[in-house]
Amino acid sequence: MDAAIKAQVEAGTMLPLMEEFYTIQGEGYHTGKAAYFIRIGGCDVGCHWCDVKESWNADLHPPTAIEQVVENAAHYSNTVVITGGEPLTWNMRPITEALKAKGLQVHIETSGAYPLTGKWDWICLSPKKTKPPVAEVYEQAHELKVIVFNNHDFKWAEEHAAKVSPDCKLYLQPEWSKREQMLPKISEYVMANPQWQISLQTHKYIGIP
């Protein structure tokens, strides 16, 4: 990578952009809302069931100036979701400040594995077993979304719920390939523990990105 481009990536004024698209938020608290998604490449958390493994290698995704991404987002929606990969691998301050300057609501979906950078209206924390969240992300998360792959994940979810603020929304979401097996168990668990809610990947059910 050219030294000048590398310096801009490190500063956060360019980011390895995998894709950007306008769609309906399919998961968690904001399910059903129109949103512009910005997917940033690069992730070393490495979940075996990840459905966007092509995002892991940042070198596959071209460093892109954030100005054009911000303009694209502002054209489509007043809500922007930055996801990955793991977006906190990079400095999120420049892009979030630029999005906020456009009057946009800025959300992040993160594993919390890296310190929080950027200005956020909504932080969705989805912790992963391979690289646990840092303390500050627990403290600031608005939403905890735990992916349920097996029976042990209920206990694991409670361990993370104990670390977030009392106002944080709690969601259990079946891993897509295990949804038929785990959804009845999640339903039973939520009825017994109503502080939790169910999150579904509704975008996959209705056939949109």
Characteristic terms for this protein:
alpha/beta, 24% strand, rSAM, carbon-nitrogen lyase activity, EC 4.3.99.3, 31% helix, TIM Barrel, 209 residues, 9-stranded mixed β-sheet
Summarize the structure.
By secondary structure, the protein is an alpha/beta fold. Helices cover 31% and strands 24% of the residues.
Give a structural overview:
- This protein is an alpha/beta fold and 209 residues long.
- The protein has one domain (3-206): TIM Barrel (Alpha-Beta Barrel).
- It is built from 7 helices and 9 strands.
- α2 packs parallel to α3.
- The relative contact order is 0.15.
- The mean pLDDT is 95.
Please describe the topology of this protein:
Blueprint: H1 3-11, E1 14-24, E2 34-40, E3 63-65, H2 66-76, E4 79-83, H3 93-101, E5 105-110, E6 122-125, H4 135-140, E7 143-148, H5 152-161, E8 169-174, H6 179-192, E9 196-198, H7 202-206
Parallel strand pairs: 2-4, 4-5, 5-6, 6-7, 7-8, 8-9
Antiparallel strand pairs: 1-2, 1-3
Helix pairs in contact: 2-3
